[in-house]
Amino acid sequence: MTREEWRRDAVFVAGRWQPTYEGRTLGVENPATEEIVGSSAEAGRGEVDDAVAAAAAAFPGWAGLPVGDRGTVLRRWLGELRSRRELLVETTIAEVGAPRKVAEESHVDTGLAVLEGYLAAAGSVPWEERVANSLVLREPIGVVGCITPWNYPLYQVLAKVGGALVAGCTVVLKPAELTPLSAYLLADAAAAAGLPAGVFNLVPGAGRVVGEALVAHPGVDMVSFTGSTGVGARVSTLAAPTVKRVALELGGKSASVVLPDADLPAAVEGTVAAAMLNSGQTCSAWSRLLVPADRLDEAVASAAAAAERLVVGDPEATDTLIGPVVSAAQRETVLGFVRRAVEQGAVVAAGGPDRPVGLDRGHYVAPTVVTAVRPDAEIVREEVFGPVLTVQAYRDEDDGLAMANAPDYGLSGAVWSGSEEAALAFARGMRTGQVDVNGAAFNPTAPFGGYRRSGNGRELGKWGIEEFLETKSVQR
Ligand code: NAD
Q1: What is the CATH number of domain 254-443?
Q2: Ligand 1 in contact with 362 (CB < 6 A)?
């Protein structure tokens, strides 16, 4: 199935849909059917120059509006997005391969909640403060280049563009090549809501071309990047000559640690569900389960059983919990990790490299549980970004904490315990930007971001607005 709204070839610059200079487009594949269901423009450097010029021209007017007036315009944008909810859901199913329930809840509703959270948080930003004889002013940083990944395309865009626009910045967005269609719908909604021309610009295209042009551009004051750690490091290098601010939201290798007094079956069930959500293509996925040594066998058995219960298949079917991964290349990457782990002596307790039965088309990977991994194995250090969970045993809590903190990443994590106090004490020791105790709910207004190689930025709530602000002291 395809739709009119998915066949696109223009860029959105200065409030208008404009053809590209070279007229090139990129196809968009449905990962479940392997059919090309849509297209986007493939922009180049010329379109980046035009978009940056439009954003710079729009900046004084947008930044000069009282924050409440910006909020009024952005609420209209939110309203236009809400009225397109079903189209956004269908688009997410088509371009990501997310099952309908996941597309509805984790992609679209959470994305809209993030924008709503920014609008609510605008009032708690200290826009002006007095310090002795100084007035400290928080002002928007300027033109922001936003670069986003394919795993939650709507959410990832709103997590940066929402904060930047509330802050008073203007934006040039380059979405991921694989999933540009949600970004097109955001631009449609921005046009319908009457966002002033140039405040939001959309320039889809290749990372190496459009992404790099945006990052190096002297007219861009800040880059906000979400993606892999390797590309994030390159973004920092390319941004350095212009000394622009760079906010990085990168990969993860998060641990779910079950303390000895926890309800182990509930902890394992919750961990498997979180690890496999969105086919494991979640930066904050708990991809490592750590359990007390004397409960390893029990934990492996229940994790394998929980993984096998997950219904894998057609994202449109109402009982499907796990869809395909996003592309053939991503499937090969994920299976490569599993094969190499097995070569190094790991044991597959559920799933594995074979196609799930009955799914001959589509980039499907069976929910996989791997155990007997070496502490320094690639599969416990590197981000797999697929439906793969490792299960490991720890000796005591100090050992568990050391294992949780061992990878270079520090994005997220979980701790499970019968005592909230004990869980909190353990959470304080985790070198990571987020920790959930006993499967607590995601909070779209709490700061989200990484320690160490998981990045240096914070998105969501007032922290995600402050990310885009400069600080000025005026002495009197
Ligand atoms: P990626 O790094 O390959 O691409 C991300 C974006 O960067 C895409 O838009 C891509 O076109 C662009 N890009 C690629 N090369 C570029 C270059 N040289 N210069 C500028 N831009 C370039 O990542 P991906 O495969 O799209 O996404 C998966 C990764 O994103 C995973 O590592 C995941 O953990 C991470 N991620 C992190 C968060 C977070 O909040 N920390 C959230 C989601 C995803």
Answers
A1: 3.40.309.10
A2: no
